[in-house]
From TrEMBL:
It comes from Gordonia lacunae. This is ABC transporter. Keywords: ATP-binding, Cell inner membrane, Cell membrane, Membrane, Nucleotide-binding, Translocase, Transmembrane, Transmembrane helix, Transport. Residues 1-27 are annotated as: Disordered. It is a multi-pass membrane protein. GO terms for cellular component: plasma membrane.
Length: 636
């Protein structure tokens, strides 16, 4: 992977890290924390490489602003000396000092403004570059990556992680430089006045540094532990909410709720066990750099120095004022360190995203000669990801032929590989071995834009964008007329529902248009029908349709399937009885294929599935007749 012109090893995707995989051994945990810290630092350095020269320039400019910061303190001391001298006040010297102070304040403001302007423009360029690179990267990733990656994770990478770099680039670098150099220049002046005043100004800082280092000794490890605790709580919340209907049905509400309570209690104990002692230490550190204590130490010891004639009162005043600004500088540096840690984590996630393997694009793309599909000796293994261990084989030596203009149905038990096989056609992923060919051409040798002009798909997980319903339907065919959009919607049995929306087809999805699962799927079907691709993949296209409209949808799709090569994944066997070929999968292998009557007569796996389907359908019809369930409940 190359970031900022530097070749680095690709980090492991953050989403693949098991939140419970942290080692129990404290030494191992610290070693892991150090390793992760190095990875974050390397990722941050690479991500910030395009603006490194400009941030260094801003820091150089800030040196002059920091040097000018000490001028007002020098002016106060010199004015005090002039005013306390016996005899008439030399107004010329007074005005000279005043103008020097004004000049110092002006120089500080000008150089600080210039330094921040440099970093802000650098930040704007960096954000534009990163978002452009991420968007370009997302455009080259296989579609299967999006099916196993949540939209929230994608949004976090594009928006939140890039935004997390803003404060570090635009503010923290310059502010940390100012917070470090301004006290140094001021302390140099204190030591110039008298070495005892210099030591007095920093009298409480060593104690603060010692206590703070004690407090932060395990900060990284403990923060990661807290993050994992929050992740466990979030997981139990999602589990409870998403499965609330199931747990209530089986009377397990208390048990499911107990998992969340246990996770929260564990987090609370860990958090309290770490933060309790740390809060006491933090209280001590706060006192050590508090204004009253600094003032007390400087004036108390300073009085003794003045009383012995070692320093002048006005010099003590100047050094005391300088000592009072040190706490602000320390807090600014602490904030900058925290910001850098946060930005490092964001940079690591960005680097992980940019390191994701891309969809291979052929150097010399080919165009299919026809619309028949041949799946030849395909093997496919799931890529490693959270919840799915590496090496799980989904397809094992699968070969299927889809003759142009025919309908092929994929059936089989849950987890048999139906959806995996179907999604290889639009290249959600590529097989480990074997080939998927369209018109005699391997799909890996077809340009993605050309491929999606030949292959359309309707999946169970419907995605509608935040735009008008009209634009959602003509997403794959932007030049379609309103009449063509309406015809596609009518064919998908969704036209009347759209007309009922506040602004009809102009209603924005998520704003005025809130579709149920079945309605959203019919909008998706309309989108696929309008795209008019010669090859169509339907993953349980009527899964959420009401029984009353399913027949019409099947009839409309059947009419529009004429002349197309269609691959259907179905759990309702009754919807694919007229398919030209039914392929039965079990554990990733083809165990049977043929027409409906042939498979039933063969008495194999499909025959047993068909018998179970008929028995279930008969039982549902009887329950509907008795009024035990409604037709909409059966559909669900």
């Amino acid at each position: 992977m190359t970031i900022g012109g530097t070749d680095v090893a690709a980090p492991a995707p953050v989403s693949d890290v098991d939140v419970d995989a942290a080692p129990d051994d404290p030494k191992a945990a610290r070693a892991q924390a150090r390793s992760e810290s190095k990875a974050k630092a390397a990722a941050l350095a690479d991500v910030l490489a395009p603006v490194k020269k400009r941030t260094l320039l801003a820091q150089f400019v800030q040196i002059f602003a920091s040097a000018a910061t000490v001028v007002p303190f020098i002016g106060i001391v010199e004015l005090g000396r002039i005013l306390l001298e016996p005899g008439p006040v030399d107004s010329g010297r007074v005005w000279l000092v005043v103008w020097l102070v004004v000049g110092g304040l002006g120089a500080r403001a000008a150089f600080s403004f210039l330094a921040l302007a440099i970093t802000h423009f650098a930040d704007l360029d960096l954000q534009a570059q990163l978002r452009t690179r991420i968007a370009d990267k997302l455009g080259r990733l296989p579609l299967g990556w999006f099916s196993r990656t949540s939209s929230g994770a994608v949004r976090k990478s594009v928006q939140n992680d890039v935004a997390d770099l803003h404060y570090l680039v635009a503010h923290a670098t310059v502010e940390a430089t100012a917070a470090t150099l301004s006290p140094i220049f001021a302390l140099i002046y204190c030591f110039y006045l008298d070495w005892r005043l210099g030591l007095l100004a920093v009298a409480t800082v060593p104690l603060y540094a010692l206590t703070y280092s004690y407090m932060a000794r395990d900060l990284t490890t403990e923060m990661e532990k807290m993050d994992k605790g929050v992740a466990r709580i979030s997981a139990t919340i999602v589990e409870f909410i998403s499965g609330v209907a199931v747990v209530k049905t089986f009377g397990q509400t208390g048990k499911a709720h107990r998992r969340f309570v246990d996770a929260a209690d564990e987090f609370n104990d860990d958090f309290a066990g770490y933060m309790g002692p740390m809060l006491r230490v933090q209280a001590v550190t706060t006192v050590l750099i508090s204004a009253p204590l600094i003032l007390l130490v400087n004036l108390g010891v300073g009085y003794w120095l003045v009383d012995n004639g070692w320093v002048q009162p006005i010099e003590l005043v100047g050094s005391t004022l300088i000592a009072m600004v040190l706490p602000t500088a320390l807090l600014t540096v602490s904030t900058a360190v925290h910001t850098r840690q946060q930005a490092s984590a964001a940079a690591l996630r960005i680097a992980a995203l940019l390191a994701e393997p891309e969809l291979d694009v052929p150097d010399t793309p080919q165009v299919p000669a026809g619309h028949d599909v041949r799946i030849e000796n395909v093997h496919f293994t799931y890529p490693p990801r959270l919840g799915v261990p590496s090496g799980v084989k989904a397809l094992d030596d699968v070969s299927v032929e889809l003759t142009e203009g025919t309908v092929t149905a994929l059936v089989g038990p849950s987890g048999s590989g139906k959806s995996t096989l179907a999604t290889l056609l639009p290249r959600f992923g590529d097989p480990d071995s074997g080939a998927v060919r369209i018109g005699g051409v391997d799909v890996r040798d077809i340009a993605p834009t050309e491929l999606y002009r030949h292959v359309g798909f309707v999946l169970q997980d419907v995605q509608l964008l935040t735009m008008s319903v009209r634009d959602n339907i003509r997403l794959g065919r932007p030049d379609a007329s309103d009449e063509q959009v309406h015809d596609a919607a009518r064919a998908a049995q969704i036209h009347d529902r759209i007309r009922e929306l506040p602004e009809g087809y102009d209603t924005v999805v998520g704003d005025g248009a809130h579709f149920s699962g079945g309605e959203a799927q019919r909008v998706s079907i309309a989108r696929a029908l309008l795209a008019d691709t010669p090859i169509l993949v339907l993953d349980e296209a009527t899964a959420f349709a009401d029984p009353e409209s399913e027949a019409q949808i099947q009839q409309a799709i059947g009419a529009l399937m004429v002349g197309r090569t269609v691959l259907v994944i179905a759990h309702r066997l009754g919807s694919i009885t007229h398919a030209d070929n039914i392929v039965v999968l079990d554990r990733g292998r083809v165990v049977e294929q043929g027409r409906q009557d042939e498979l039933v007569a063969r008495g194999g796996l499909y025959a047993s599935m068909w018998a179970a389907y008929e028995a279930g359908t008969t039982r549902q019809d009887e329950e509907i007749a008795r009024g035990a369930v409604t037709s909409s409940e059966v559909a669900r």
